[in-house]
Amino acid sequence: MSRLPRVAIVGRPNVGKSTLLNRLVNSRVSIVEPTAGVTRDRVSLPVRIPTDFGERTVEIMDTGGIGIVDRQDLGPLVEEQVETAVGNADLIVFMVDVRDGITPLDKEVAERLRRVECPVVLVCNKAEGDRMAWEVDQFRALGLSAEPIPISAQNGEGLEDFFSAISDRLPVPREDEMAAVSVMKLAIVGRRNAGKSTLTNALAREERMIVSEVAGTTRDAVDVLFERDGRSFTVIDTAGVRKKSSFEDAIDFFSDSRAYRAVRRADVVVLLFDAMEPLSGLEKRLARYAMDHYKPVVLGANKWDTVGDQMTAQELSDYIEAELPGLRFAPLVCLSGKDQWRVDELLETAEQLYQQAHTRVGTGELNRVVQRAVAGRGPSSSGHRVRIHYATQAERLPPTIVVFVNDKRLIGKDYIRYLTNRFREETPFKEVPIRVVLRDSEDTGEDED
């Protein structure tokens, strides 16, 4: 099975590992905050970098700081994630902070890396300007064979030499290497302790996320690239959403906002909840947010193994439909991430939604649906004559259907919802949100549901 070459970024806390990852992907993927230990899990993303063989895609893994002192006593679990990243890496980027000089923790990390077999690139971060560049030579004392490379992850300085060092030390690319590029982003969102990280590990079939009984263990929206049956996926594990009144610090604020950003980034969203807990306003807010952004949603009833004979799947489905009427078309999967029961079914369901959202329906077929819809219930507007001329699909993901009418002001939202439901019933878009846009035949303005 082909996979991307893996590059792990390691170092003590607060040297700029997450800033470098954000710079490489040109997006704020990892939380960057002065508090030490914000990153706990492995954040992995495919990144295109220039090499001697041309542009090449590699998997970059951001890790938690080695030697972290964690207020929730999760330090050993963070260290375990770092060790796993180092053990699975094809190349290690050891990052230090030029401004702080060599610290005891830097020496400890260097001692560990001298025992690993894969190549190491020594990166000296925060080397802005000529004066800081002169301070780089001191890091030769760490005893690594790697030549220290000055960079500024914040400003993007020195990345050309950084890319060159990576290119020199990575294995020669295989012909089938690009087959490992992710085809679908799957965001897992929900309340704290719903089992999101456990489900992520079950999907990846390895311990990629720290799982703890401590609420709020996951702080960031963590991208995990994994392969299944010859296909590659990215699952985005998110921090549990919570009421804003319960935020303790800036990290809680960023964690919450990243969960909603993950919904926007995703192709498909898994709204995960504990099957034994009633749905709260938090799940309803997430559901509304996903619908507002026209994201396909899989409803995941986790911990189904604890339900027993207290409830049937149909009873749960009826309850969810009453609580989340806007998602009555979304499929429900009852599962157990801990026991890895029906996890594959959840992934297959997400793939089906992804394919539905990418489907294109011909104009002729859409117009036949419109004709049957109008015959069943014509639009009316206080004696005004309303005419629907034709419909056509303008976009995919989300499926966007433009309906041309004589005067869009005469058609209310109730009739738009009626048309949307008819499109869902008679096209392949049976389980995904549909965006219906009204447009006057003689102008370019638009109105939508």
TrEMBL record:
Domain of life: Bacteria
Listed Pfam families: KH_dom-like, MMR_HSR1
One GO biological process term: ribosome biogenesis
Keyword list, A-Z: GTP-binding, Nucleotide-binding, Repeat, Ribosome biogenesis
Membrane-crossing segments per the record: none
GO molecular function per UniProt: GTP binding; ribosome binding
Gene3D superfamilies the UniProt entry points to: 3.30.300.20, P-loop containing nucleotide triphosphate hydrolases
InterPro entries: G_ENGA, GTP-bd, GTPase_Der, KH_dom-like, KH_dom-like_a/b, P-loop_NTPase, Small_GTP-bd
Domain EngA-type G intervals: 184-358
Sites where the protein binds GTP 2: 190-197, 237-241, 302-305
Subunit text: Associates with the 50S ribosomal subunit.
Protein name: GTPase Der
Species of provenance: Rohdeia mirabilis
Gene name of this polypeptide: der
